[in-house]
Amino acid sequence: MKIKLTFWRVVFIVVMVLGLYSSYIRYFRGLGAVSNMTDQFPWGLWIGFDCLCGVMLAAGGFIMVGAVYLFNVERLHSVVRPAVLTAFLGYVLFIVGLLFDLGRPWYIWHQLIYMNPHSVMFEVGMCVMTYTTVLLFEFLPNVFEAVNWKAPIKWINKIYPVLIVLGILLSTLHQSSLGSLYLIMPSKLHPFWYTPALPFFFFGSAVAVGLAMTIFESTQSARVFGRQLELPVLVTLGGALLVALWVNLLLRFEDYFHRGLLREIFKPSYEAYFLWLELVLTFVLPIAILSFKKARLSPQWLYLASIFTVLGFITNRLNIALIGFETYVGHHYVPKWTEFSITLMIIAMGFALFAVAVRYLPIFPQEEHGVKPRLRSEPATSPMVSTPVLGHAGD
Asked: How many whole angstroms separate alpha carbon 393 and alpha carbon 395?
């Protein structure tokens, strides 16, 4: 079979080659040779983006599963499987990124033996491992349908209500606990980003980004794979995203007001410039777009609002992980090109695996012959936890 060499395939090859070269340096010459992290600045780009942002960007899985199977929002059925796929890949790649950041990654299994239940990091690690396992079981029906294995699908159907509740519980725990990691650093993290409410902000941002990422991936999939765009679904997600953004904004405003920082925000400073960028991308632009009904009914404006939201909350996580510590450390941290190349390699792997899964597995509803098929994952009529039917879309 002849493989056509396109521009993006060339870019993918270049990114992978540079990333593999940087990986070689990291594992054979150590962290100091591949990164600009130091003992004073031990958490760099790989924690700030690959871990904090990676987990947040994968939040669409538990948001869509909860909306459909707990709250019975039927119109969102068609985006459940793509959201679960994105979440599964996001968590797998999060673990891959963590293996680059850990000094001795081959000891990552030690937390299963030398447990410290009083550690927030232990709770995050256990929740991530368990939730990744839950996502694996939620994703497996796609594979079983592709090879027409009906017995395993029936088995997973029986335990699916447990997976749903367990997945939502674990996601809620570790999405918020990522913020708890920074509660022990009140003297190191800048007051713009240090707050006792960090766990709530991390969970709230995950909800908003989960909705925005679902809009983004639905639009991109329709463009790349020639699918029909499901506008009613995007409109519903856009309305929910507007509410989530307002809730996040009001919580942030109340926090700044309560801690007496509203005046400090408007004083020009190095940290304030990054905070302004974060607030504009996260709240000002997407809320301004989504506040108009015509924009919420337009796929182009919804797509743009989702991009601003994702970029804004990524800026927030990077501000917390990087910018907020630079004043305490006393110097600016600029990642080496090898750090960037490894991060880009992980992102490229995510896009490639998503494309392969969509091409060979029944991720999206079938649209052949102009007939709208039965949704692949249909919940029962129970208004609370419903058992999905995971049979093949064409059955």
From this structure: 6
Residue 25 near residue 338, CB atoms below 8 Å: yes
Buried b / exposed e along 362-371 (16+ C-beta atoms within 10 A) = bbbbeeeeee
285: tokens are 């632009």
Compute the CA torsion angle 229, 231, 235, 238 (nearest 10 deg). Answer: 10
The pTM for the full model equals 0.87
The segment with the largest mean pLDDT, out of 31-35, 140-144, 242-246, 389-393, is: 242-246
Overall number of domains in the chain: 1
Residue 89 lies in a domain: no
At position 75, the amino acid (one-letter code) is R
Give the whole-angstrom CA distance, residue 26 versus residue 48.
18
What's the pLDDT tens digit per position in 272-329? 999 999 999 999 999 999 999 999 999 999 999 999 999 999 999 999 999 999 888 8
Q: Is 264 part of a structural domain of the chain?
A: yes
Contact (Cβ atoms closer than 8 angstroms) between residue 349 and residue 53:
no
Retrieve residue 203's tokens.
């969970």
CA 382 to CA 44: how far, in whole Å? 46
198 in any annotated domain: yes
- Residue 267: which domain range? 188-211+220-333
Determine whether 118 is exposed, middle or buried from the number of CB atoms within 10 Å of its CB (0-12, 13-18, 19+): exposed
- Residue 84 located in a structural domain: no
